Amino acid sequence: MKLAFYTGPECGLCDLADDILAQSQHQRELDITKYNIREDTQLYHLYGARIPVLKRQDTQQELGWPFDLETLELFLQ
Questions:
Q1: What is d(CA 75, CA 69) in angstroms, rounded to the nearest whole number?
Q2: Whether pTM exceeds 0.70
Protein backbone atom coordinates (compact mmCIF):
# COMPACT_ATOMS: atom_id res chain seq x y z
CA MET A 1 0.00 0.00 0.00
CA LYS A 2 1.33 3.42 -0.96
CA LEU A 3 1.17 6.20 1.61
CA ALA A 4 2.12 9.85 1.47
CA PHE A 5 3.49 11.06 4.80
CA TYR A 6 3.27 14.84 5.05
CA THR A 7 5.82 16.08 7.52
CA GLY A 8 8.11 18.98 8.27
CA PRO A 9 11.58 19.67 9.65
CA GLU A 10 12.07 19.38 13.39
CA CYS A 11 8.49 18.14 13.86
CA GLY A 12 8.25 16.21 17.13
CA LEU A 13 4.72 15.05 16.36
CA CYS A 14 5.95 13.73 13.01
CA ASP A 15 8.60 11.72 14.86
CA LEU A 16 5.87 10.23 17.07
CA ALA A 17 3.79 9.37 14.00
CA ASP A 18 6.85 7.75 12.42
CA ASP A 19 7.31 5.62 15.56
CA ILE A 20 3.68 4.49 15.39
CA LEU A 21 4.10 3.58 11.72
CA ALA A 22 7.11 1.46 12.65
CA GLN A 23 4.92 -0.53 15.07
CA SER A 24 2.23 -1.30 12.49
CA GLN A 25 1.52 -4.91 11.65
CA HIS A 26 1.33 -3.70 8.02
CA GLN A 27 4.79 -2.13 8.09
CA ARG A 28 6.30 -4.53 5.54
CA GLU A 29 3.44 -3.89 3.10
CA LEU A 30 3.76 -0.11 3.22
CA ASP A 31 5.47 2.01 0.60
CA ILE A 32 5.79 5.37 2.35
CA THR A 33 6.93 8.55 0.64
CA LYS A 34 7.71 11.44 2.97
CA TYR A 35 6.96 14.96 1.81
CA ASN A 36 8.46 17.95 3.57
CA ILE A 37 5.64 20.46 3.29
CA ARG A 38 8.08 23.37 3.59
CA GLU A 39 9.48 22.49 0.17
CA ASP A 40 6.15 22.95 -1.63
CA THR A 41 3.92 26.02 -1.21
CA GLN A 42 0.73 24.14 -2.09
CA LEU A 43 1.47 21.36 0.41
CA TYR A 44 2.34 23.95 3.05
CA HIS A 45 -1.04 25.64 2.60
CA LEU A 46 -2.88 22.29 2.68
CA TYR A 47 -1.05 20.67 5.59
CA GLY A 48 0.91 23.39 7.44
CA ALA A 49 -1.34 23.43 10.49
CA ARG A 50 -2.19 19.72 10.32
CA ILE A 51 1.06 17.73 10.08
CA PRO A 52 1.70 14.91 10.48
CA VAL A 53 -0.81 13.60 7.96
CA LEU A 54 -0.90 10.23 6.23
CA LYS A 55 -2.69 9.89 2.90
CA ARG A 56 -3.56 6.62 1.20
CA GLN A 57 -2.82 6.78 -2.51
CA ASP A 58 -5.49 4.19 -3.38
CA THR A 59 -8.48 5.80 -1.63
CA GLN A 60 -7.19 9.36 -1.09
CA GLN A 61 -8.28 9.08 2.56
CA GLU A 62 -6.26 11.06 5.08
CA LEU A 63 -5.36 10.34 8.67
CA GLY A 64 -4.30 13.42 10.59
CA TRP A 65 -2.69 13.76 13.97
CA PRO A 66 -3.44 12.77 16.66
CA PHE A 67 -3.66 9.03 16.04
CA ASP A 68 -2.58 5.92 17.88
CA LEU A 69 -1.63 2.45 16.68
CA GLU A 70 -5.22 1.19 16.81
CA THR A 71 -6.48 4.10 14.70
CA LEU A 72 -3.64 3.60 12.23
CA GLU A 73 -4.42 -0.10 11.84
CA LEU A 74 -8.08 0.69 11.09
CA PHE A 75 -6.99 3.30 8.56
CA LEU A 76 -4.77 0.75 6.78
CA GLN A 77 -7.48 -1.91 6.43
A1: 10
A2: yes
